Structures are given as C-alpha cells and as structure tokens.
Amino acid sequence: NDNIGTGSRFPYITQIGGGGFTGFGLNGSQASGYKENIIGVQDLTWEKSYKTDIGLEIGILDKLSLTMDYFKDRRKNILIERSTLSSIAGYNGSVVFANLGEMNNQGFDGNIEYNDKIGKVGLRLYANATYAHNEIVFQDEPLRNYNYQRGTGHMWGEFTGYIDQGLYVDAADIAQHAQQTFGTVSPGDIRYKNLNPEDDNVIDGNDWTYLGKSSFPKWLYGAGYTVSWHNIDLSMLFQGVMGVGIMANGSQITSGGLGADGVGIVPFSGLGQFPNNTMDILNDRWTVDNPRQDAYYPRITIGSLTDNNYLNSTRWLKNGDYLRLKQVSIGYSLVAKRLKNAGLSSLYFYLSGQNLLTFSKFKLWDPELGSNGAKYPITKMFTFGVRANF
Q1: Nearest to 210 by CA among 166, 156, 149
Q2: Of all helices (H) and strands (E), which one includes residue 36?
Q3: pTM here?
Q4: In which region does residue 230 sit, left (phi positive, over 0), alpha (psi from -120 to 50) or beta (all else)?
Q5: Backbone phi, psi, residue 145, to 5°
Q6: Beta strands 179-180 and 202-203: pairing type?
Q7: Are 189 and 203 spatial neighbours (Cβ–Cβ below 8 Å)?
C-alpha cells in the first residue's frame, strides 16, 4: 500500500527538524532548537492482506446472467503512528511508526443482467449492488476513561461528536440540565447528552462518542436499461449510495485549504473571499418568538466551530444517501443507400445528459461532495454527437 501519506514516507529513518526552545541569561532570551521529529524504526515492512472470496456465477438461456461474491479482507501489519508511547519516556513531540494496525473489511457484491428481444423491441435490464463494512481491529490507541470513546471496533473514518438532545427551552431547562462547558449557553442552544452521569454532572470532553456513520457509504448500487426499436434506442442509468453520513457544520471545509472553518454553513462565519452563504435557510432558526425544536439552526450567534452550537454532533450529522439519474441517452441510426454511395455504412445521431436529477434528503449541496460543500460541484452535462461508420 503506497497510500501512506508524505509524513510517513521514510519512517525507518530518524528525521531531525525544528522544534522547541529554551531560555538563556537573566532575561530568559529564547533560543530555538532541533529535535527528532520522527524516530526511525528498523525492520518496518509492508502490510499483509488475507483475502477470502466465494463467488457464484449463473447463466440461463443466454438471457439472464447473475454473479454474486462474498468477500473478506483481513489486513495486518498496517503502518500506523504509535499513540500509546508516553511523553514521560521522552517521546513528546516525536512520531514513531510501527506495523501494528489491523482491520477487517467484508461484504458482498452482486450483478444481474437480462437481455431479450420481444418482436422488434430489444431489451437490456441490469442492476448491481455492493455492501461493505469495515472495522478497526487494532490501532494502538491510548487507554480511554470510557469505552464509548475507544475507536477499536468502530468503522474507519466514523464521525465522532456529541449526542444532540434538542434545544434548551428556557433558563429553567438550562438550570436542571448537566452543566455544559463549551461557553455560556442560552435558550435556543443545543443541549447535549451526559454520557457519564454516574461520575459527574458536567458535559465536557468526556462526553463525545462515536456517532455510527462515516463518510464511506455502506451500500453502492446502480440500475439501468436500454430499449431499442427499429433504428431508435433509449437508455437510462441510475446510481446511488446508502449508509453514509455528512457532517454539515462546516468542520471539513478547510480540508482543501478553502477559507475558514464553518464557511458556507455556520452563520456569521467565514473570512475574506470565503464568506458564508446561508441566507436561503437562515430564517429556519430558533428565536424567542419562534422557539421551534425542529428548526434547522439553533440560536444564531457569531459562529465558530468551537462554539457550543457548532461542535460535531448528531444534530449536524445528516443522512447523505442519494439516488442520481446518472445518464440518459437517445440515439437514432440512419442507414440509407445514399450513405453507401458516399462511402458510409451508417450514421448514428445521439443526445445524452449526465447528472440530470438527484434525489436526496440532504439539500444544502450535492451529497456526493460529502462534508466539504466548498468543493467544485458535480455538474450537469448535455452532449450531442454524430458517429459515422465507414
């Protein structure tokens, strides 16, 4: 696996870089220094993959074909960064890699296709579906005070955050709830679940957990058909995903280097040339005069991702499932004696469109973009062409 990132490209070599400082003299003048940013580890090797696949292929009368596969991939010796080395041992600020990661990935894949001709009508129907589930078996994570914060046993890339329990109704509601430590809260702010009530009555960094969805879909599917009659043919292709989440609080906007955290989704945030653009749903918010629990936005404040209302939580974890009309095309084949006299056997005229319709509960941007709505959107495209056969 060569997709290991630039920082771990040569993890077997100790790498020296800038970092740290100390003071000299009575005035404590600072002097910067150098340290071991990466501590080289001998005998690192490639990861190992143990694959199992059971397949079935069926064909009936040259009309119906079916293929099904069950697969399982157990990966070991994955190159990971150590997270359990204590800074007390002198490893503070230094990175150490090891072949310790383990993951399971399993699921099934199926395809079905039917071809037939009924009179002068030609018909082709097809569909496919893939289900895949991954699970972290070992990732060398530090011991947690609470098991619900352990990544082992969860999906790779699974979203983490807080459990939304609605919006505060009034001051009395705030007073009777566990104290939230993410700034001063007011009526209309998000109320989070206390996951360790037996230990304290405080909502803090001990109350985040894994939220059950990741940016990788569990299901991918597609279906389509082609119908032909005389010289005319029509085809359509649908494509979709299920079991995928979108963290729609702007937390991944800066992953591509665009703007500020929260740009485009958190009201009154964004810097310079990347201001937000939320006016179309800004009225759908909690107000004193309209204290709706189902409002899209909580109480509006000057926002950043460290504010109580815009932390990663189930409130912002949206359903990213979608079904898309991926392609439609219609064509006509022209065959005539005049074409043969001109040295052509046929002309085929066609008109096609791509990404014409998308059906999804998520409306802020194209769900295929994931949690980063600042990326270039998926575009609709129309094509007209002529194909000549000589």
Answers
A1: 149
A2: strand 29-38
A3: 0.83
A4: left
A5: -65, -25
A6: parallel
A7: no
